Amino acid sequence: MAKLDYLALLQSAVRQTHNCEAVYSETVHVHEVVDGQTMWKGDVEIFTLSGHAEAKRCFAWIYQDGAEHTRYVMVLEKASVDSPKMAVKSAIFFNVQPAPYSLPRSEP
């Protein structure tokens, strides 16, 4: 999937999930290691929010959940989640709770 298509899908999911405007800001690569083991490695997209009551930013990414589904993960910036790395840690801690958007994986 092209980067622009990927960002557009995430942006749309953030807008719909949080009912506010979302504008892409930047991509940050995160490599989370626990006890010497890679727990997660990938890019986190940062969106600036306007019109959201509680958050100014959202950290988001998409991952394949097995062979059947694409999962959209969105973590709002809060006092304890103030960076892409903390968003990933939070998602790991909460067992990567997916957003309500789960699309079937498209066939190649």
Q: What does the model show?
A:
This protein is of the alpha+beta class. Helices cover 24% and strands 44% of the residues. The model is unreliable at 97-108 (pLDDT under 50). The chain has helices spanning 3-18, 84-93, and strands spanning 21-34, 37-50, 57-65, 69-76, 102-104. The chain has one domain. The radius of gyration is 14 Å and the shape is globular. A five-stranded antiparallel sheet has the order 1-2-3-4-5. The chain has two helices and five strands; from the N terminus they run αββββαβ. The N and C termini lie close together (11 Å).
Assembly classification: single chain
How many individual domains?
1
Assign the structural class, choosing from mainly alpha, mainly beta, alpha/beta, alpha+beta, or little secondary structure. alpha+beta
Number of strands: 5
Average pLDDT, to the nearest integer?
84
Low-confidence sequence ranges: 97-108
Topology (SSEs and partners):
Layout: H1 3-18, E1 21-34, E2 37-50, E3 57-65, E4 69-76, H2 84-93, E5 102-104
